Structures are given as C-alpha cells and as structure tokens.
Amino acid sequence: MSGLDTPDTLIDRLKETRTLTREQWVRLITGCDKATEAWLFDEARAVRHSVYGRDVYIRGLIEISNICKNDCLYCGIRRSNRNADRYRLTSEQILACAEYGYRLGFRTFVLQGGEDSYYTDELMCELVAELKQKYPDCAVTLSLGERGEKSFTRLFEAGADRYLLRHETANPEHYASIHPPEMKLSDRLECLRALKRIGYQVGSGFMVGSPGQTAENLAEDMLLLQELQPQMVGIGPFIPHKDTPFGSRPAGTVELTVRLLAMIRLMLPHALIPATTALGTLDPDGREKGILAGANVIMPNLSPPDTREKYSLYDNKLCTGDEAAESLNSLKKRIESIGYRIVEERGDYKP
Ligand code: 5AD
User: Fold this and answer.
1) Is residue 5 part of a domain?
2) Measured distance CA(9)–CA(40) in Å, rounded
3) C-beta of 241 in contact with ligand 1 (< 6 A)
4) Would you say residue 40 lies in a domain?
5) Is the Cβ atom of 166 under 6 angstroms away from ligand 1?
6) Is the dihedral of CA 302, 103, 276, 324 positive or negative?
7) If we measure between CA atoms, which residue out of 180, 179, 181, 182 comes closest to residue 206?
8) Ligand 1 atom 2: the closest Cα is on which residue?
9) What is the CATH number of the domain that holds 219?
10) Of 36, 37, 203, 284, which is most buried, counting CB atoms within 10 Å of its CB?
C-alpha cells in the first residue's frame, strides 16, 4: 500500500493523522517536487492561520557567551577553535540588553550561550528572577545547553518560562559522527524529557544538511519530534564554519529546510516555529520563505553590537540589517509586505 503513496496522498494523510511512518516520511522528503511544494506550503499556512492567524512573534536574542566546553564538529564556537575571540556578558550587560529590547517592543528574551560554567545556577537564577521582576509581562527563554535536572528545576522556579535545546539529529550514529565522543544523544534526550516534566515550554530541532545526514535520518528527526511533542521547533540549514572540521562541507539548502518546516507545521499545528537566522544567512529572502512555509517566530539579535560577530556559529552569520533588533521597524515592513504582522506580545504556545 504505502509503496504506492504519492507525495500528494502523503500530505493528505499527514493533515488527517498528524503523523506518518518512517517509510512515508522518507518518501515525502525525497519525492517532494515544486508542484507538491506549492501545495505543501498552502496547507502549512492554512494550519498556521487557524491557530496563530497572521501574527508573527518576535524574540530578543541575547548571546550571552561564546565560551563553550563542548567540541561539536560543526560549530564555530567549539572549544578547540583557537581563532574564536571569546567573550562573556555580565549580568549587568544582559540586563542592559533586556532594557533596550523592552523599549523596542520585545516581550520575550532569549538568553543563549555556549556551555560556559561561569553561568552557575546561582548567577542564572538571580538574573532570571531580576528579569522577571523588572519585566513581569515578559517571558524568559534559556538556551544554555545540557544541564542537570536539578539545575533546570531551579531555573524554572526562578521564573524561566521556556528552554531551547535542539536534539541536532535523532540518529545515534549520526549524532556520534558530528559530536565529540563524550556527547551522547541519550543525554540530550534525557534533558529534553526532564525539561518537559518540569513544565517548561520546550524547544527542540535539528540542522538540515549536516555532514552525513540522510533522508532516513530526517525521517527519524520527524518521528522524534512527533514523540516529543515540543512546543517549539527550530530548524536551520547547516552552514560550514571555516575553523571547524566541517569547514569545507557543503551547506544545507534553503529549499529542503523550508519544506521540512512546512511538514513540521502540518505535524505539530500549534508549534512555535522560527524562521531562523541560518535561513536568512543563506538567502536574503530566507526568513520570508520560512514565514510563507508556516513559521511564526523571528528572533532578531539583541546582543551588544560589539559582541555579535564573535558569536560565530557558522560563516557569514547575519547580525546586521533586519537581523538586528534595532531594525525592528524595517523588519515589520518586510513582514507586512508578505501579509503578516509582528506583534509585541509574549507569544506563548497556544495549546
Ligand atoms: N550551521 C548551522 N547551524 C549551526 N548551529 C551550530 N553550528 C551550526 C552550523 N555550522 C546551530 C545548532 C545549535 C544552534 C544554536 O545553532 O543547531 O543548536
């Protein structure tokens, strides 16, 4: 039966049942042509409009540190990259970013950084509590990598609302081939499950086109998301960074990334899905393409301008133009020109 499934019938099935088998995912991912794509995007937008209307949520991204104990083979801030110019922001600097962001209209702050032991539970809890006290109408999202369940619990009790931790790839062998030996997919999944148990709105996701990735791996990513049911899903194309072992590998494509984004929208209609910086980096219209494929979040950069280029996960990472938080007005116009509107709200998950 499933051997005869065309991409069009698979999209119908996905709409009806919100799931596919592994074989069906592979078939949809490999068999999607331009005509199917147009229909896929139409359906993804229809689902998105039924849950979130035409609202686009914004998140002020504060890149708090590029110091990282990990050595992920794809990442420009991996610990063995001697060429990275390392920095970390103090609590005062982070609070100043938030103050500026609040005035611009941001009602969610995302504190993202490498796994840097400087940011102890004590420091982070104090910072989160202060942010929540100063801006009670704002959500605080953390993206600080793997920590223990106790640590996640303390941060949640201090007021953190959401946590972003991409699983990167759902296949254990593929995971092992793009990470150092001490990192395990099972640890990452344990963190994600703990975060959900504690009560965070949880974000996961993966890179598209990372070295060695197959269509089967992507099918496994979809099945994992299906099982995990995260409130947020971030995906972006892999982009090489010159000072990493994957520096000369080809980048993932915008085309495949936005198709997968639309499929995720059909599978998880309520998810908060960003049109990521990596999409915008590979294609000047990447973010718009993401929104038109069903994304509903944009994360402009709110880091201090002099640190932005140091948070270099991959080559040519956008941090100026409409990627910069201070260009919000110009971003608003671009989003309006494609029929959507940026709203200055927390933008919580709608169950
Ligand atoms: N290309 C694309 N995305 C990358 N990330 C890290 N390095 C790269 C790269 N070279 C992504 C990872 C991580 C997120 C913060 O950035 O998926 O979870």
Assistant:
1) no
2) 11
3) yes
4) yes
5) yes
6) negative
7) 179
8) 238
9) 3.20.20.70
10) 203
